Amino acid sequence: MLGxxxxxxxxxxxxRFFQEHKTEVFEIECDGNQFEMFESMRIYIERNGRSYxxxxxVRVLNKKRxxxxxxxxxxxxxxxxxVGDKDRHKVEDERAALEKLQDGRLASIKAHMExxxxxxxxxxxxxxxxxxxxxxxxxxxxxxxVGPTDPVDYLADYIFQKSNCLRKQVKTKKSAAQ
Length: 178
Hints:
Blueprint: H1 14-20, H2 34-45, H3 58-121, H4 124-146, H5 151-177
Helix pairs in contact: 4-5
């Protein structure tokens, strides 16, 4: 028995006190099945909707979400600006490289045009003697030494290889002169 031993014993049930003060009373029978008891209590408590008193309020959640979105947007803009700067520098570097390549090509074209002008001043015999006969003579001597089964094809390959070698020599001379 709880309470003070000399206290006046109540004749009325405790639930009547709450009813008199217009407070709703939830009565539950304790038959020993805990699951049913707890489920009944949960249903009674959640009769007007679930209680979210353990979670942050919707206002707080919206404020946090808004702050996160603003932070994410700020980071995105900063990242975009840095990528924009990188892209701008990359484009400028590519443009400079292309301009340098174009200048090199123009110089090469100019040199080739000067060479063509010089060769056009020579008559055909002088041009052949200066440009063609030395390479052709070396090729024919090489064909004689090797004795291939297809001498014309061998001579064509030899002239092509010699032409590439001469082009490389001209390029190295021009780059050394610059």
